[in-house]
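INTERNAL AUDIT FORM
Audit reference: QA-55
Scope: verify that the stored structure record matches its stored sequence.
Auditor: D.O.
Record contents follow.
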Amino acid sequence: MVDMMSLEEMAKQELKKLESENRLWKEHRLESPASSWSVVDGTKQLMLCTNDYLGLANNEEMKKASISSTEAYGVGSGAVRVISGTMSIHKQLEEELAAFKRRPASITLQSGYVTNFGVLSTLLDEDDLVLSDELNHGSIIDGIRMSRCEKVVYKHNDMDSLAEALDRANPKGKMLIVTDAVFSMEGDIAPLPGIAKLAKKYGAITYVDDAHGDGVLGENGRGAVNHFGLEGKIDIEMGTFSKAFGSVGGYIAAGEYFCEMLRNKVRAFLLSGSHPPSVAAANLESIRYVQKNPKLLKILWSNTRYFKKGLRSLGFDTGKSETPITPIMIGDSGAAQKMADELFKEGVFVIPIVFPMVPKGAARIRTIVNARHTESDLDFALGKLEKVGRRLHII
């Protein structure tokens, strides 16, 4: 048996190893609401590292809905959904979410990670084959691993690679193609029309993780499937409330029978307490709010274009980004960490993205603008990025 001292020593050595490889996560403390500017570790910072695309994390209407729901229902449900944890606010959220996504039904779960992990590990079994983009999110990878199905990884956004894999496929069971809609470290968009076409040709099920497309792409932020005009042609849409919708929670929008099956089979749903009513109410209000305020999406994209143009004019490499996720490609993990540290001293909060989140030698600073940033905010950020970038000989 490993005693506590040896366990602590093992952990200490692992942390030293991570630090030597510039992979040690530095925890920062947020001391104010998440906003365009926030107090982090006691200092005022321009926030360029949150997923709060529409600036809803501190939205007044959502806060009012959350408080009102707490007063009406209390702070928790007291049970899992299938016992006594399903409140009317949970059902109302799922009904309006399905209508927003223009799907017959939806099911909500505790987080985006839980949704991918729970649903994929339930949907797939050892007789099935999954075809997965090589840059898919870790929650997709973990869900596939838990299912023990056969897996083929196709080259990133490469339809020839996917077609070749489908040509070779001969599973005993079903085939599933799974992809992020917007890739969280690259900022590029999956070629969903090509995927849908191949899926139809080969009889595969399609599963799209729209975590970074919700609230960002499509009519009133309906997501990537709507953006490409593919409603009714993608089988399963997954999303989360923790990004553009400013709160927390994951969901599946799909057919009525499929969602009902998930309610009866997904262990993450069956064995986890339901969202506090305050969370469900905030999520419901977020869906309503984005539909009532389409200008937020226009501002988000205007800010995105302005910031990308500024970065490129300074000489930064922003990769293949097509969305508000804009990586600043650095290469060396130590240089990326140093740049993030120096920017923090200048009042700009960004996070270095290093291996294993990206391949070795592909470290970067990931930036995300939101709809609450002003042009003055973005000019401030560009000025500090230029200052630090030149000091570190990145540009």
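Auditor finding: record pair retrieved intact. The longest strand covers residues 325-331.
Action required: none
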